[in-house]
Amino acid sequence: MAAAGIKWVRGFDQGRTASTLAAASANGVELSGILAFSTVSPQTFPVDDLPAWRAYVTGSLNDTRDKVHFWEVWNEPPNFTENKSPAAYATIVAAAYEAAKAADPSVQIGLAAQSVNLNFLAQALDAGAADHFDYVTVHPYETMGLVEFGWEAEYMSIVPTIRKLLADKNPAKRDVPVWFTEVGEPVGNGVTPEHQADTLVKAFVMGIAQGVTRVHWFEPLDGDSGPFGLVDSSGNERPSYVAVRTLTEQLGEKPLYLGWLLLNDLHHGFVFQGKMSTVLVGWAPPGQSANLDFGASASLVDPKNGVASPATAVTLTSSPLLIVNVPAELVARARSNAGSPFPWGGDYAQAASVSFTAPSTESGLHPLGAGRAITLGGDPARDQSGAPAQSFTVDPNFLSYGATPIRITAVLRRNGADSAGFNLKYESTSGWKGTGSWYNVPGDDQWYTQSWTITDPQFVGKWGYNFSFDSDSTDHSKYSIRSVTIAKQ
Fold first, then answer.
1. Average pLDDT over residues 129-157
2. 242 and 267 share one domain
3. 370 has a pLDDT exceeding 90
4. What average pLDDT does the segment 127-143 reach?
5. What pTM was estimated for this model as a whole?
6. Backbone dihedral angles phi then psi of residue 488, each to the nearest 5 degrees
7. HSE toward the beta carbon, residue 477, CA cutoff 13 A
8. 313 and 429, same structural domain?
9. Structural domain span for residue 148
10. Given this model, what pLDDT does residue 296 score?
11. Helix (H, G, I), strand (E, B), or coil: what is residue 168?
12. Taking the CB of residue 473, how many other CB atoms lie within 10 A of it?
């Protein structure tokens, strides 16, 4: 990992602290730790034994004094604990923070969450975690997994949404660092090593672009979680390993982000001040390619092999490329966009409503999955019968985190005589919840309009989406959608 330019490793075996610290020091690598301890099995947040928890925190810091300066509280809460309560998590966060600062005031304590579970963090902050942390960590696996379908804007909204959360619940901590302490993709099941490398480049580039302090890829070496590694179980370097090394060589150890732009008004480009010159990392939306003529001599670098070649034009695909020595005009455009929200097919920041219209018109509202386009009653429709649920994401510039009341309106029709229906479930101020009643699509003789008023939305994209028509199984999903609209109330 050190040879690839990696300077930080998150998590280590505290049963072998001394040897791990020695190896890290010998290779110029810093470690960050995870505070997780329980006196019972299966483990749980140790709210019933806070003296033992505080002693564990103090002992961990004493064992690593002057060597490990960053510790996040728990791994992916509320995962890996029997007690799922945000209040219980808040209790151990506050106790850990107080014990850590008493042992070493310079140590930094991280507030953690599974996926991008900001609803959980909001409740934990209300319950006593406020002012008891120095940085925030999330694990955006699911959100990153949607980028290959063209959902870059949702990934790019993670840090801005965290800033909204902190401004609301703990203003004094609004600008604390944000770390992605896990993000990754396993090879296999249709994912090639080359695809994994493409995902890694996009995860790092867009993480840095939105202001993430550190991005930790899961993981260095294949382990018991599967083939996630930059290096496989036989010690062979994957293209993702080469990609990390190439990014470090070209962008430097602490990349300086300059801004984003849409190449040919469509294709993603992120510009950095690299080690020797400006560097643009660019790619095309899924299933598309484009010829980009930048009218000047530059160097193209494929991050998967590190090979550079001179060129004045490039064919962009969904696999990212590095363009070194970016033309000044592109750099200027990128700088002008640096502080602007990342677009997703339009600007919906001031829109009163967003909508999806079958088969594929997305105006600020995006259905998850490809769906099946059909014609029903002479109208284009999206057939839902092949999946137990249909999830949607709202453009984060239209609505993210804020609890603005909304009205969701769907135009639906059964595919045949069989009954069909679903529960509307959504991200709320109290977490993922349903509206409380099952909706039966009335019939197959016409299109039916159904509306729901939601007074407590809190759309944060925990799994990359905000609400779902959940039919439980394909036994109940034999219906089609003509349109869905969300209007602010």
1. 97
2. no
3. no
4. 98
5. 0.96
6. -75, 140
7. 20
8. no
9. 2-253
10. 81
11. helix
12. 10
